[in-house]
Amino acid sequence: MRLDGGELAAAAARVLRTNDRGTMTVAAPRLYPHQWSWDAAFVAIGQAHLSVPRACVELDSLLAAQWRTGMIPHIVFSQSDEYFPGTSWWRCAELNPAAPRRPPTSGICQPPLHAIAVARILEVARRRGGADREVAEAFVRRTWPALYAWHRWLVSARAQASHGLVAIVHGWESGMDNSPRWDEPYAGVTVGHLPAYRRTDVAVVGDATQRPERAEYDRYIWLIDELRRLRYDDAAIAGQGSFRVGDVFSTAILAAACEVLADLAPLAEGADDQASDLYGWAECLRGAIAASADPATGMARDYDVRGGRWLGTNTVAGFAPLLCGSLDQDLLAEFNGPRWCGAPGLVAAVPQSTRCGTAGYDPRRYWRGPLWPIIAWLFGWAFERGGLAEQAAQTRREGLRLVADGSFGEYYEPHTGEPLGSQDQSFTAAVTLDWLA
Ligand code: 2M8
Fold first, then answer.
1. Which residue owns the Cα nearest ligand 1 atom 10?
2. Region at 72 (left for phi over 0; alpha for psi -120 to 50; beta for the rest)
3. Angle (CA) 80 192 95, round 5°
4. How far is it, in rounded angstroms, from Cα 217 to Cα 199?
5. Which residues are paired to 12 by β-bridges?
6. What is the residue-level pLDDT of the chain in tens, covering all 437 positions?
7. Helix or strand or coil: residue 45?
8. String of b and e for 280-304 (b: at least 16 CB within 10 Å)?
9. Cβ–Cβ contacts within 10 Å for residue 196, how many?
10. 158 CB contacts (<8 Å, ≥6 apart)?
């Protein structure tokens, strides 16, 4: 069944309201009963269309959990204990003085989409005017320093020895947990003794073929064990962590976010010098992304610091330059062409997480092939920002085609459109609202 625009917007709003726990929105009702970092940024973008003040609260809650280093943690835990790995696995506050005592958080981060969300909230609020505009402008003023500190931490703690790309120290930091992008670096992670653990994700989803495999989870959990032993200390992790990969997609999000945040500096008062830093970082990051291009295909690549190798996988991350200002015609043609959005049989012309038929592809398994509405949204946002109005409109149309059944799947089977993973996923509902606004 396909809902019309009005029905779809009402259903999306219902999802965000149902998943609202007061000051934070859970990423999904059962699978993810906490606040996730980049999910919160998407959620706030959706909420802006329902209530500007509530959208601001969402990011205020996330920022209240920011570490003193500047890191925004990837999970801010609610009261629920229905998720593995939960607070007792992370133990951040006990091990690192930079972590907040309350609320409990995880000890890793996620792609820095937050400044982009803040700017979108402001844009919506200014369109509405009146009290919304005042609330949003005060919100930008209040949050600007925290976002600057977040970007500064990423640049200073994570862009060393990775060819200028932002390095991740756990695949979860990319947001694309089991993407084939990480297969090679994960193969270099030797799992030691792990206590028995019980996954909650497969129990909730039911069909284990939609989730990462057991051996992958062992590595995810082992890496947390290792980070815990290193007390989440940035320098120790840089020297001794067994996973460190320059992530070209997160780097592209940071490059764009640095510019967006710098453009908001006039609202923040006295932030001129910091705005120059941000523009400078954006330029360096864009340079690093350009330098990562595979000479044969032009696609951007990740860099495995431990293995000392470029990683050329056939994933959507190859289009990272398009997220941060590149209008490269060859890359755009590839994006639209028969290997990607124009691939035969796709239910919607949006990029697959992993290209059909290539190494590691699996049409049902999470980040190994399915279509993700949030990824389509990111490209649509970037096209709009780059002045590619028709391309942006097409991405939005196709994104809406993908989510039109109103189930708000976490991700979708590329050829049948079956919603997979969680349903009523907050970030899917949020981008739907933004597309419809
Ligand atoms: C997924 O990741 C979490 C771990 O962070 C999980 O599988 O348990 C990813 O899709 C990630 O991008 C997303 O932020 C999170 C919550 O939606 O779920």
1. 175
2. beta
3. 50
4. 9
5. none
6. 899 999 999 999 999 999 999 999 999 999 999 999 999 999 999 999 999 999 999 999 999 999 999 999 999 999 999 999 999 999 999 999 999 999 999 999 999 999 999 999 999 999 999 999 999 999 999 999 999 999 999 999 999 899 999 999 999 999 999 999 999 999 999 999 999 999 999 999 999 999 999 999 999 999 999 999 999 999 999 999 999 999 999 999 999 999 999 999 999 988 999 999 999 999 999 999 999 999 999 999 999 999 999 999 999 999 999 999 999 999 999 999 999 999 999 999 999 999 999 999 999 999 999 999 999 999 999 999 999 999 999 999 999 999 999 999 999 999 999 999 999 999 999 999 999 99
7. helix
8. ebbeebbebbeebbeeeeebbbbbb
9. 4
10. 166, 167, 168
Q: What is the dihedral of CA 246, 428, 71, 90, to 10 degrees?
A: -90
Which numbered atom of ligand 1 lies nearest the CA of 27? 17
Query: Which residue, 219, 218, 180, is CA-closest to 356?
Result: 180
Choose which residue among 15, 31, 32, 204 to substitute to test ligand 1 binding: the one with the highest number of ligand atoms within 8 A of its C-beta: 32
With the most atoms of ligand 1 within 8 angstroms of its CB, the residue from 172, 197, 205 to mutate is: 172
User: What CA–CA distances, in Å, run from 297 to 93, 321, 379?
Assistant: 45, 13, 20
DSSP state of 105: B
Query: Model's pTM, two decimal places?
Result: 0.99
Which residues touch 243 (CB under 8 Å, ≥6 apart)?
Answer: 168, 169, 170, 171, 182, 185, 186, 188, 189, 223, 306
- Could you give the 3-state DSSP secondary structure of residue 343? coil
